[in-house]
Amino acid sequence: MWAEISEFIQQGPIRSEIIQSVLLIIGVLLVRTVILQTHFRRHPAMQIEDMRRWVVVSRNLTLIACLIGLISVWAAQIQTLALSMFAIAAAIVLATKELIMCLSGSLLRSLTKQYSVGDYIEIGGLRGRVVDINLFNTLMMQIGPNILVGQLSGKTVSFPNSLLLAQSVQRDNILGPYVIHTFDIPVPLAVDPDAVLPPLQALLEQLCAPYVAEIEQHLALIQTQKLFITPAAHPRLTCVPHDDKVYNLIVRFACPLYKRLEIQQNLISEFMRVQYRLLHPAA
């Protein structure tokens, strides 16, 4: 069978197109690599963000150049095939629209590496830990019922992969074994922020202190390898206005993934104790 296919390619009308396509792709990739390496060597002090921008723009331009070149090479074959297959293809697309969208979403997830098994994600109001992925849908253990608790509810929820084409995906553990965790605490306006922030800041720094140094090294490694702009590893507390009754205390800290809920709960418990003492000074 393979011998017959090889003989057809060697003797058939598409032999030249195949050779031209391979040479085109190799040539474009080599040109991109040479341009990037030359530019980076000439500008050794270039910022990480600028380097990342060059990589992204060159990748997109390379893809466009390859597509245009392949269309030019295969124009005659495409035209011949399109005329004969147009009606059949239109009927198939209409009949299998949802199936094609699911397969397209699955392909998009694979190419962009949006998430994999074990990741914590949120999409379309659904939040959970991914336990299974196939060509048509994604299955995850649901987190709830309260998002601040962050525990697995024991229920599973699935969504079609076509949702990836229309919804944004939030992924918690993009930094591997570590996570930058953020949550809000609503605080009554009657509670003085100068009395709340110091004890919470001290507790947060104490809980995160064992991990700050190793997380900083990990973030620096990611920034070097992937050209990502990584966030700071030190914990922060910030007050922002919300309405005429409460203001929000924004808590942000970096820690190992398995420690984030423990640190969050300790901080919330400490806040409730501080708030009670401030609102009931005579108790």
Automatic annotation (TrEMBL):
Transmembrane domains' residue ranges: 18-35, 56-75
Superkingdom of this protein's organism: Bacteria
Name listed for the protein in its UniProt record: Mechanosensitive ion channel family protein
Compartment(s): Membrane
UniProt keyword terms in alphabetical order: Membrane, Transmembrane, Transmembrane helix
Occurrences of domain Mechanosensitive ion channel MscS (ranges): 104-141
Main location (coarse class): membrane
InterPro entries (UniProt xref): LSM_dom_sf, MscS_beta-dom_sf, MscS_channel_2nd
Gene Ontology molecular-function annotations: mechanosensitive monoatomic ion channel activity
One CC-aspect GO term: membrane
